[in-house]
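Researcher: Next sequence.
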Amino acid sequence: MMLARLVSVPLLALALAGPVLAQMIEVRQFTVEPAEESYVVNANFEFILTPRLEEALNNGVVLSFMIEFELMRPRWYWFDEKAAAERLEVKLAFNPLLRQYRVSTGPLHRNFSSLADALNVVSRLRSWQVFERDRVRADTSYVAALRMRLDTAQLPKPFQLSAITDRELTLASEWRRMPFTTVPERSAQ
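Model: Next structure:
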């Protein structure tokens, strides 16, 4: 009986505390622009690593940031139609032997001598191809949305458990939405 009371008090306190607020990543600037056969996203994010995340990084934990894009076509008569959705993973790691930070996107990577330089690259997204031109209708209105978050599922298991309750291990932005109208196709002359 006494054990049940001791266990239920911390659980009750956790439940009454409400949702744990995440540290913020802010989407500063966000554009969707036409390229040759597709549309690309350019964006600037603003954030700082918490002391706990910086310590984890410097002790060999790889931080995976997930950038997510969605293109929705609003419909008054039914649910909005998802015209496109893409995800991009950007990894930030530290090599203590070389004393260098590494930013990786897929098979591409770059090394930096300072964390500030590495974070500068992570916070800037340029020419990310998000959808082909033939996936959208010409002269149609859409809503483009973008967000960035630290993918806590990629952290080591002890950090994943801590991230549930520790706001120092959680970084995320809100979805930033903007109206988007496709560019009409040019006629061949």
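Model: The chain has one domain: 21-180. The chain has four helices and eleven strands.
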